[in-house]
Write a sequence for this structure.
């Protein structure tokens, strides 16, 4: 008998929203301010998934010291806080899928390695009609980022749900590992920042190609 879920938790970047252009713009602003070469959008695509510090560490030239990384990161954060909505938008079909899940009474949340303030800002702007809980990176509060299960666990608690009833939806290897570490099922999407072949190589068990297929998977 197919499993019955009550709760769906989403990654943000590459899953609900195409945020790549704004991430690349803030990365290149910070690099340019420090006199470093800029990166292509495809390079930034490969760098994302493990939080903004890791994005910056991957983007700066090899051999740059930790103090310099901190400076680039501060520039990125200040720029992105003001420009995270310049070009970012939900993928086609996402809002319709969320509306369908809402009509089916699913509990929904966002769990993202993007900074917590930007996660909440983007949720308020685009998804708050359907999604009540949005959890972003906030390691200063003692919650490790993905692939640690702690952020997902926090979202489940805030929703008043149980992990056994939860499906995690994401577009990356980090999301697959996060779900595995949390002991929840994972559904991988192929419209985001990683290809279907990449996801399969990293252990994806279920894949969908379009947001409308999410309703079919859950129904």
């Amino acid at each position: 008998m197919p499993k019955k879920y009550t709760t769906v938790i989403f990654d943000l970047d590459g899953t609900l929203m195409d945020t790549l252009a704004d991430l690349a713009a803030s990365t290149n602003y910070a690099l340019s301010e420090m006199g470093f070469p800029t990166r292509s959008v495809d390079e930034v695509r490969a760098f994302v998934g493990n939080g903004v510090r890791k994005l910056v560490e991957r983007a700066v030239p090899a051999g740059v010291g930790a103090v310099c990384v901190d400076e680039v990161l501060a520039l990125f954060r200040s720029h992105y806080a003001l420009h995270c909505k310049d070009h970012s938008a939900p993928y086609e079909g996402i809002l319709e899928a969320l509306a369908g899940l809402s009509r089916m009474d699913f509990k929904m949340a966002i769990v993202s390695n993007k900074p917590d303030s930007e996660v909440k800002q983007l949720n308020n702007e685009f998804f708050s009609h359907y999604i009540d809980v949005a959890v972003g990176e906030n390691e200063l509060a003692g919650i490790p980022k993905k692939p640690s299960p702690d952020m997902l666990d926090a979202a489940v608690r805030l929703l008043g749900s149980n992990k056994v009833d939860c499906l995690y939806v994401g577009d990356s290897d980090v999301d697959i590992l996060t779900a595995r570490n949390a002991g929840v099922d994972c559904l991988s999407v192929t419209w985001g920042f990683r290809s279907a072949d990449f996801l399969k190589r990293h252990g994806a068990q279920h894949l969908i190609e379009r947001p409308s297929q999410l309703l079919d998977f859950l129904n």
Summary: The chain has two domains: 7-18+89-218, 20-83. The chain has a mean pLDDT of 94. The domain at 7-18+89-218 is CATH 3.40.50.1000 (Rossmann fold). The CA atoms of residues 36 and 97 lie 41 Å apart.
